[in-house]
C-alpha cells in the first residue's frame, strides 16, 4: 500500500471516528446475515462478507462477525485467527470451537459456551486462498509468508473499520491458536507501529492457545511429552532427544532431505505412539473430524504409498459450508476452487517461516504494555504445555517481571480448570485441564471461563 493510500485511509478513519456513534455503517448493511439455513432464532446480529485488501490484484479476505448476545455496544471486539498456516477461522474457530453455532446434520445447534456471550467475535479467513478468501490471480497464492499475512491482516482491519465505524473506539483483543502464535503477535506488532502515527487501534491484549512461538523449544518438548505419558519407551526417548529431535526432523522434512537417522527415529516413534492415538489429544478416541487437523506445519506427516487419510465419514462443518444456500446466506463465493475446504489446497505458504521465533515479538508487546495470555490444552502433544510454559517463564525472567500470581490451580464450576501463573500485570500462562490442541472445542466450559477472565484482566478463579 502506498504512502498516499495510507494517508487517504487514515483520513477516512479519522472522519469515521468522529461519526462512530452512528449505530451501523451503510457499508455493513449489505453484509448483514438475515438468517443462516437451519439456524435457531437468536437475538444478536451476524454479518459476513469480503474486504478487498488489494484492488489491483483483486485479493479479498472473508470474515464472519457474531455480535455479542447481549449489550453488544458495551462489549469488546475480539478477532480470532486459526493456524495451519492455511486453515479456516470460519470452519474451525466459528463453527467448531467458540462460535455461536455448531452444524448438526442439516441444521445448526447453539453452542452453550460461545465466546460471543462475552464479546463481539470477528473470525477472519486468512491468508488469501483460505476458505472463502480469494484472489483472481492464482499467482497470489504463491510465496505467501508471515510478513505478507501480517500486512494483509492489518489492511483488512483498517478497511473493516470503514464498514463498521461503530467499533473504532472499542476495546480490541486478538486471539488464536497453533500457528496463530505467529499470526497474532506479528499483527499486534504492526498495529502498535501504525498507532504511533494514526492511533487507530485500541488494542487491549492478545491470547494465544497452544502456540508456535519458538521452533526448537516448542517442537522438541514433544519427546518428553510422549515419554511422560507412556507413549514411547526409554530407548526411543533417548533416540528422540539425542540422535534426531523433532525440530531437526521437521527442518529436514521441509527441505526435502530427511536423513536416514531421522527416518529411523521417526519410524520408531510412529510405531510406538501408534496411528490410533490422536496427537492433538492423546486421550481422545481416534477418528476425529478433519476440522481439528488444522496444522500443516506443526505436525507434518509424510503419507506412505497406498495409505489413505481417515477424516471420518461425516464432517458436519464441511458439508454445511459447501451448501449453496449457506454460501448465499453468508454472501460467500468460491473462486478458483469447486469446494470450500477446512485447510487450503491452493495456498503455497513459506513453511520455513515456522523456524523464525515470535517469542521476541511477544516480549516487545509485553514491554509496550499489551497484556499477553499464553494458554495450553494439557492433552496436546503437538505443541505441548511444557514448551510454552518454559518460553513464558524465560521471557518473564528476561523482562525482569516478578511473579504476581504463583503457580496454582484455577477452577471452572466445581472442578479444577487447570493451572496458572502470572508475571507482572501483563504476562500470564495457563493450562486447561483435559483440553486438546483446540481448547474451546475440547473443553468449551473451561475455555469460556478462561476467556472471560482474560477480557476482564482478572486472575483465573482460585476457588469454586
From TrEMBL:
- PROSITE patterns tied to this protein: CARBOXYPEPT_SER_SER (PS00131)
The molecular function terms in GO held by this entry are: serine-type carboxypeptidase activity
Q: Report the main location listed first in the record.
A: secreted
Tell me which Gene Ontology terms the entry assigns under biological process. proteolysis
* Key words of the record: Carboxypeptidase, Disulfide bond, Glycoprotein, Hydrolase, Protease, Secreted, Signal
Whether Hydrolase counts among this entry's keywords is yes
Q: Which Pfam families match?
A: Peptidase_S10
Q: Does the keyword Oxidoreductase apply?
A: no
Q: Which family does it belong to?
A: Belongs to the peptidase S10 family.
The UniProt function text for this chain reads: Probable carboxypeptidase.
Q: What is this protein called?
A: Carboxypeptidase
